[in-house]
Each structure stands twice: as C-alpha cells, then as structure tokens.
Amino acid sequence: MPVTKEEYGCSSSSEAIGQYTITNKHGMKAKLIDYGASLVELWVPDQHGNTADVVLGWPDLKGYENNSFYFASVVGRVANRIAKGSFSIDGVKYLLNINNGPNTNHGGIKAFHLQVWKGCIEGDDKVTFTYISPDGEEGFPGEVTATASYQLTDDNKLIISFVAMTTKATPINLCNHSYFNLAGHTAGSIIDHLIQINAENYTPLDDTSIPTGEIVGVKDTVFDLREPVKIGDRIYDVPGRGFDHNFCIKSSLEESCARVSHPGSGRCMEMFTTKPGIQFYSANYLDDTCKGKEETTYAKHGGLCLESQYYPNSVNQPNFSKSVLQPGEKYNHTTVYKFSW
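The line above is the sequence of Aldose 1-epimerase; the predicted structure tokens follow.
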C-alpha cells in the first residue's frame, strides 16, 4: 500500500508536524512523525489474529516535545553516555551539556530527539527524515547532516538506516530509542518476555553508568543471555535497578544478535545490526507519573529497548571502536527488527 501522510500537530515553535503511515500486506503498520523522527506506533499481528501496538509512546505532540524517556525517537549525535560530558579530538577539548548525573546522555539537553526533522516519502514502504545539526549544537563540533530512514517490508522487517556527514571531526552514534512490549504497549511489565542476546562479552559499568573500559565474558554472570531467558527470572539479580548494559555482539545483517518473544501472543522480534554493540535497557526508570498513549500508565519494566550502538563512551576509550566521523567520510548504520507471530 502507498505510504500516507497527514498532519500530526503543530509544534511549540509553530512548525507543522507530519505523520506518515506505512502498511505491509500482512497487517503490520508503522506510524512515524517529523518530531524526533519518531516511531510513534508499530502495529503487529499475533497468533490469535489480534493486532496490537507494540511500542510505548506519548498521546500527543506535547509529550514528544518533553520526551524525558526518549520514547520512539532518534537519539544523537551520540546515543548513550559520554563521561563527564567531554572529549578531545586532535588535541582540542570539547565540553558538552551535562544531563545525566556528571555525564552527557543521548546527545545532551536539546538533542536530536527534540528536533523537527523533515520527512520524505520514498516509494511504497519507506520514509526518510533529514536533520541538519549546526556546528556547536550541545557542544559538539561540526555541522552534521543526518538522515534516518524507516522501511517496513512485506517480509515483516522494520529496517532503520542512518547516514551522516560532517564538516568537522565529531563523534556520531545514532539509534532509535523505541521501547518494545510485544504483548502490546498497554499490557504492563515485560518480565514475562523471553530474551536472548548472542554476546560472549559485555562492558561493565562504574557507579555513574560509564563503562570501565574492560570487556568481560558473560559466562557465569547474570549477563549470560546466550540462551533464551525469561526476563523476570534474571532481572532481579542484576545490580542496580535492572538491565542497562552494553553487550558486545557480532555486526551482521544475516545473523541475529538478539531475539525477544512473548509466549502469550506468539510475537517474536529478531534484531540484526551493523554496529558492534547493543544496549539492553529494561525501562528501569519508568514510574506511575508516565502517562502514555490510550491513557496508559507506563510503570517500571513496562517495555524494553535494544539500542544498536558503538560502545558507550567510545570517544574516550582507546580500546573501544572509535565513533569519530571525519569530514569527507560517511557514517552508515543499519538495524533490522524482524517480526513473526
């Protein structure tokens, strides 16, 4: 079916925000908006013939303009944390806006998730959003032109692709920050979901959630998710409030790096990515003040995120893959979520 466009709302800066709907032949449907290049709805059938929206989100544009939980949006320039909000490139130290304890998280205070992107329909199954980030935005060097493309295919794949170019050397690490609940976004906790992450190693954290720089084997730890595990059987053994950790995976669009399933509905989501890491976040900070779509209260562990990425704080860790993009280079990153039921 052709992609459709309608008005979603008007931003606080008086910009018209479009909503785009992509539908495939099996009844899947994705709804996207210009604000934050956000995936505001994702409808997936189940084994009983029912269809549910499986991503958490806000009921209106105002929610996305105050999106403290980053629901559904593109985060950048750098997803995840940068220690103490600073880094150096070619001997020049850059200071960023601090927004997460002593650190910068997901690009800063008014980062990519709080910007109006320009959407463009491409064919019958794809929408591409563009945002130009000015030199110095949130403290980052260089003007960056970024695109985020969403494609919903007839083989039930949601393909998210990012491209970026810069005028100065700058770290780039883009991802979509959707919270999934395969029982439906209104269903409550995801502790009855099964998860499998094909990672031999993970990156331990300090007390501010910055990787220590070590790469440690998952064997005989709570982070060994190489076989399917019921989240509720493991999450309470994780130090702190739950999972919010980077797993070191094999970059591949042929082999899945993670798989999540919900036995009750039969829905399953497999993940593939070209990046070396994924952050498994179990929505540890949602609380009863979070009022989402359909008047739903999203409580702790009401969804889960699988964020494809360079390792957190890689710009400051010499033994991590570098996330710095140079002028003349092109940042490319593709992540695929494949659904079945």
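Note on the example: Residues 61-65 form the longest helix (5 residues). The first strand starts at residue 4 and ends at 10.
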